[in-house]
């Protein structure tokens, strides 16, 4: 198992600032008062005075925007268990403008799932569980964080384990207990104390004071190079506040899944050309008529004259997606007796517990579908099943015991035994998935139908067999590769050449007919800014340096790196210059031809980006003729002459390139929807963190989503193990920056075992998303098709697809959710007192009625009623499930996520059914 961390080396110096708010000195620290820490306020303020920290106070109930957090450098959330989505989003925005955050205790643990996920991202970890007794704090092993190495920081504390989960987070202190779990976690912008700060029964005033002074001093020094105030913050602040009681709407304004600029969980080495949607090599075994033996000689475009830069080693892989897929995998090697670190032990334990949850969840769904009992009128809270339905007690309980005992085995240095038990438990649990029973709800079940598979089909009859297989597997949406490496799959009047491997038929026309006959949607999948492919050249016997038919005819449309290469070292694809107006018009004409000549249901933009770059290593791209001229006209300098060290100019150059992609997506969406108002626009995108992605490929799909330019985001969250897949997918699932756009995570089937693919799909079904996409059709084996057929069923008339019928999807998915609740109630597996049960049942029926009415006859008034009812229900749901959340936290989270999916479907439906 590989885990990468980034270390930050900061000096440690205590400071002495006068307490409270001095007239001559602005406060350094803002402290947040909430309903939850009011009873602790005397202890909190006494420690602040003792620390000598110049502070001011704000009320959490008054926070609704980023400005409300204030313009101080550092914000302290002491023991705040609940934040609303609006407050969490505002906190993320405040930190993005330079704010530093300190938090203590089980911060946000009573918030909705999306808020918890966002706080986990901002803090680099989350409150795992409370310790039974006071434990000794001690420095973390190999602790290089100089700000946290003073003797005053270490003593006995009663607190809890903080689980670090972000690539930039590191334990600054640990508990002196088995496997030394983290007690304090820090990132560059945050510090998280694993105890209730300011509470005498948790820690001493001296220790609390020492930690606060160390953390504030650290963050003040970090902020010193920026400014004295947070950009855009309000200066309003007081020494005391009056707390108001929040309303349910304030506490749960909207059940969003929150996230933001989230690291995918490792130092991802992504050298090479980024694959967006997948580069499918047909290999040399394609039985087709021979392609042409000669090609027009490519014209030579004018390349930039680059400034000299040092030679750099090209990345080992020309496909960055492959390196992303391999990074930070949870690899467990059988019989290895190599030491297992405490962080690895926690990861193994968590994954086993999560797998138990996924197996239980899948079985519950399958059982609820096959047995739909009436609502139970009498609750029996004392009778609770020890396992979930459909899973043998021995298998599940054995796995739970192994998860529980892993830390002990590792503490005894029985590493090989720990690994062997973990592998055995995982294999046994995988066998308990209900792969032979129906369990799928209405969802997007998409597959990329790649060029190689289309070519091998040879004709419409061969293609018909492929669509039959996809339909029997329950696939309802096909991304059909229509433009690849500059060639169209169909005979075009706009593009210079149809793919030479296609002779005598029109695969796109056939695909549209075959899909619609089977009640499936057909979306044309097009390469946008990737102009050619050296691998494709090999297949069609073209010269290696052939740039594709479009660039061969229009060399001025080419893009270049800073050395004048059309194809950067280590990569295989030339790219267009997105700033070239003629190129943009050509692409728009081509896409208009596709959506008007063919009855396609959607258009998917792939390679909607620049090639992969690494500015820190001297690999930079984007110096097309048009781009250089436009940038020089705007800024008075040729971009080839600037470097990343020139911050202002470099930021302008990065923004310029990013804007070229943004504006093209907006232009294409608007123009094509004028021709086809019901066209679904999707994008295949790369799942790097937002800021890193902008620097490396200029792909800012959050902007496209917020503006409503796209309907579906399909991040290529490719991984060979489920934990890695979830780490890649969850930040985007949790993002608040996607507007009403639906998220459809991608799963790569190549080298993935059948049950591994099913496991990743179950992750998606337990998270707040609307479906999945499989790459690619050529990897859909007979065994996988059988599993899909059993669990998803064949596509038939009346198939509900979320992006077509979002309101109906929401109603049907909620009905399925109610079936699960009824099933566990009937089987005495849900602890609800009689009075609570009565309220729960009645409110559940009210929500069902509101969703059904909206589905039957959508209108703005019915949408408002449904959203308000959902908000009320979700607000009460966590209270109703308080005991169940202790007994079975995974299932409660899964139910909350499905409610969040319904809320997102209502948002999307508002945009596409009521506004468009």
UniProtKB/TrEMBL annotation:
Database matches in Pfam families: GHL10
Leader sequence residues: 1-22
Keywords, sorted A to Z: Signal
Region Disordered, annotated ranges: 252-274
Ranges annotated as biased composition (Polar residues): 254-274
Annotated Glycosyl hydrolase-like domain residues: 443-751
Gene3D superfamilies reported in the protein's UniProt record: 3.40.50.880, Glycosidases
Domain of life where this protein originates: Bacteria
InterPro entries: Class_I_gatase-like, Divisome_Glycosyl_Hydrolase, GH, GHL10
Protein name: Family 10 glycosylhydrolase
Organism encoding this protein: Plectonema radiosum NIES-515
């Amino acid at each position: 198992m590989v885990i990468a961390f980034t270390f930050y080396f900061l000096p440690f110096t205590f400071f002495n600032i006068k307490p409270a708010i001095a007239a001559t000195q602005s406060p350094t620290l803002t402290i947040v008062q909430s309903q939850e820490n009011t009873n602790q306020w005397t202890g909190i303020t006494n420690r602040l005075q003792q620390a000598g920290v110049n502070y001011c106070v704000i009320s959490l109930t008054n926070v609704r925007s980023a400005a409300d957090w204030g313009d101080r450098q550092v914000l302290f959330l002491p023991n705040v268990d609940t934040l609303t989505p609006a407050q969490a989003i505002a906190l993320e925005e405040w930190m993005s403008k330079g704010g530093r955050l300190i938090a203590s205790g089980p911060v946000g643990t009573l918030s909705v799932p999306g808020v918890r996920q966002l706080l986990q991202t901002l803090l680099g970890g989350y409150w795992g569980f409370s310790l039974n007794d006071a434990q000794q704090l001690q420095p973390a092993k190999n602790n290089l964080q100089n700000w946290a190495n003073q003797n005053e920081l270490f003593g006995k504390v009663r607190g809890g384990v903080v689980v670090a989960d972000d690539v930039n987070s590191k334990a600054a202190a640990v508990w002196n207990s088995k496997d030394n779990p983290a007690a304090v976690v820090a990132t560059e912008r945050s510090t998280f104390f694993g105890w209730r700060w300011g509470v005498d029964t948790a820690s001493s005033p001296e220790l609390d004071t020492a930690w606060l002074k160390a953390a504030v001093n650290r963050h003040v020094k970090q902020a010193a190079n920026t400014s004295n105030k947070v950009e855009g913050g309000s200066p309003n602040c007081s020494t005391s506040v009056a707390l108001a009681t929040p309303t349910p709407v304030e506490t749960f304004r909207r059940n969003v899944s929150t996230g933001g600029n989230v690291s995918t969980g490792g130092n991802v080495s992504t050298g090479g050309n980024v694959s967006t949607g997948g580069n499918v090599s047909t290999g040399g075994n394609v039985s087709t008529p021979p392609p042409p033996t000669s090609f027009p000689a490519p014209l030579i475009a004018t390349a930039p004259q680059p400034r000299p830069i040092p030679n750099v080693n090209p990345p080992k892989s020309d496909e960055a997606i492959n390196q992303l897929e391999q990074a930070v995998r949870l690899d467990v090697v059988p019989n290895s007796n190599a030491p297992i670190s405490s962080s690895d032990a926690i990861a193994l334990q968590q994954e086993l517990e999560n797998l138990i949850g996924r197996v239980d969840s899948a079985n519950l769904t399958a059982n609820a579908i096959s047995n739909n009992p009436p609502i139970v009128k009498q609750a029996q809270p004392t009778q609770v099943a020890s396992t979930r339905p459909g899973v043998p007690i021995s298998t599940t309980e054995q796995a739970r015991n192994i998860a529980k005992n892993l830390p002990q085995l590792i503490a005894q240095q029985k590493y090989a035994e720990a690994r062997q038990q973990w592998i055995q438990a995982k294999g046994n649990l995988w066998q308990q998935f209900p792969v032979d029973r129906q369990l799928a709800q209405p969802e997007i079940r998409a597959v990329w139908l790649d060029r190689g598979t289309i070519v091998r089909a040879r004709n419409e009859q061969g293609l018909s067999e492929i669509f039959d297989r996809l339909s029997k597997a329950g696939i309802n949406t096909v991304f059909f590769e229509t433009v690849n490496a500059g060639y169209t799959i169909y005979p075009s009047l706009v593009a210079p050449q149809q793919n030479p491997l296609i002779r005598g038929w029109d695969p796109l026309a056939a695909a549209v007919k075959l899909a619609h006959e089977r009640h499936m949607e057909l979306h044309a999948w097009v390469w946008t800014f990737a102009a050619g492919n050296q691998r494709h050249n090999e297949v069609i016997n073209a010269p290696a340096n052939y740039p594709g038919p479009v660039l061969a005819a229009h060399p001025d449309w080419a893009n270049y790196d800073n050395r004048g290469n059309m194809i950067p070292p280590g990569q295989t694809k030339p790219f267009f210059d997105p700033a070239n107006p003629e190129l943009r018009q050509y692409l728009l004409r081509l896409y208009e031809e596709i959506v008007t000549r063919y009855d396609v249901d959607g258009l998917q933009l792939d390679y909607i980006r620049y090639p992969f770059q690494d500015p820190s290593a001297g690999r930079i791209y984007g110096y097309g003729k048009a781009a250089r001229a436009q940038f020089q006209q705007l800024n008075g300098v040729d971009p080839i002459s600037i470097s990343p060290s020139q911050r202002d100019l470099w930021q302008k150059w990065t923004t310029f390139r990013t804007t070229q992609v943004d504006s093209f997506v907006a232009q294409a969406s608007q123009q094509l929807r004028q021709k086809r108002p019901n066209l679904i626009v999707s994008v295949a995108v790369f799942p790097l963190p937002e800021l890193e992605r902008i620097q490396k490929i200029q792909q800012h799909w959050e902007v496209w989503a917020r503006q409503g330019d796209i309907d579906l985001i399909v991040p290529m969250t490719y991984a060979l193990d489920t934990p890695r897949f979830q780490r890649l997918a969850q930040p985007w699932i949790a993002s608040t920056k996607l507007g009403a756009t639906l998220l459809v995570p991608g799963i790569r089937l190549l080298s993935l075992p059948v049950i591994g693919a099913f496991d990743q799909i179950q992750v998606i079904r337990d998270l707040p998303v609307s479906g999945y996409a499989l790459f690619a059709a050529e990897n859909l084996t007979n065994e996988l098709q059988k599993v899909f057929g059993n669990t998803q069923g064949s596509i038939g008339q009346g198939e509900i697809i979320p992006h077509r019928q979002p309101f109906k999807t929401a109603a049907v998915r909620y009905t399925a959710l109610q079936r699960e609740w009824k099933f566990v109630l009937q089987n005495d597996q849900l602890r609800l007192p009689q009075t609570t049960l009565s309220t729960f049942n009645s409110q559940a029926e009210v929500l069902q009625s509101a969703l059904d009415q909206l589905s039957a006859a959508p209108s703005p008034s019915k949408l408002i009623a449904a959203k308000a009812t959902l908000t009320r229900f979700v607000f009460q749901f966590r209270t109703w499930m308080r005991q169940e959340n202790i007994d079975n936290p995974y299932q409660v989270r899964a139910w909350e996520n499905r409610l969040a999916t319904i809320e997102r479907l209502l948002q999307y439906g508002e945009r596409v059914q009521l506004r468009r």
